[in-house]
Structures are given as structure tokens and as C-alpha cells.
Amino acid sequence: MSKKRIMILCLTLIMCFPLTAFAAANVGVSKIPPIINDTGIIKPDSTSTPSKKSVYDIGDNYTVSGSASRSDLYTDKCFKGVTSISYSITNNSSKDLKVNLCSYTKWGNVNYGVKKVTIPANGKTSSSFSELSSSKYYFIEFAAPSDFKGTVCGNQ
Questions:
Q1: What are phi and psi of 122, to 5 degrees?
Q2: Distance of alpha carbon 84 from alpha carbon 63, whole angstroms
């Protein structure tokens, strides 16, 4: 093969390489909410038996960040045993970010939008979802379009 053909092949591969490969990875979030069954929580990206690692440890800060144009994003773990969930989220988008606290009913159905907050475009909000039932499982939904980063923490 001549150098010219190799160069053309390389340029073709570079130009055809998907741009999404260069996008920042989502951290602590998933395109599907965490799933519960009778024995507890199953992480969305796992088929293994639920474990305590599928639930956030109370009092620890966890990083969440993500970017999605069409899909809502969800924390990949649940909070349980908490009476409040504090958050500090930076919205890197030129559009407002809608953040919803969701819970599971005792029958396993999702109750979306238990509490809601809107983070302004290119803004930062630090606050908490309070007056929560410590017996319920909670997770956070970040509505599309989104581009955010921050921390979440469950408190007793």
C-alpha cells in the first residue's frame, strides 16, 4: 500500500469516527431508573442480586453528572432511610434543568415528581428535598435536555 492510500484511509477513519465517542461520560446516572423488587434495589446496569451497594450510604456525598439531549437521566442508586436529600447541581446548559425527586410506592410503582426543582440555565442550585419518609426508596430524575454536574447526599 502506498503512503497516499494509507493517509486517505486514516483520514477517512478519523472523519467517520462517531463524535459521541468524545463526549464526557455520565457519572452516577443512567438512562433508566433503578429498579426495585421484593428483596430490594437492582442497579439498572446490573442483573446481579441486589446488594446494599445499590443504595446510597447515608451521609456520604456522591457525584452525579450527565448530558443527554433526548433521554431523561436518573441516579443509578436509590436513597433509603433518609428524611432529606441535599444536592448541589450546576446546570451547564443554556436551558433550564428540571430535577424531580421520585419514589417507589409499596407496590413497586414509580411516583414521579414527589418534589420538583428547576435549576436556571447556566446556574447552580444548592438545597435539599426535605420531609421525606425514611421507609421509602427515592431516586432523582434529571429531565432532558440536560448537561449538569454536582453532588447528592442522603441525610437522616
A1: 55, 30
A2: 17
**CB contact at 8 A, 48 and 37:** no
Helix/strand/coil (H, E, C) string of the chain? CCHHHHHHHHHHHHHHCCHHHHCCCCECEECCCCEEECCEEECCCCCCCCCHHHECCCCCCEEEEEEECCCCEEECCEEECCCEEEEEEEECCCCCEEEEEEEECCCCCEEEEEEEEEECCCCEEEEEECCCCCCCEEEEEECCCEEEEEEEEEEC
pTM recorded for the entire structure: 0.76
More confident residue, 82 or 35: 82
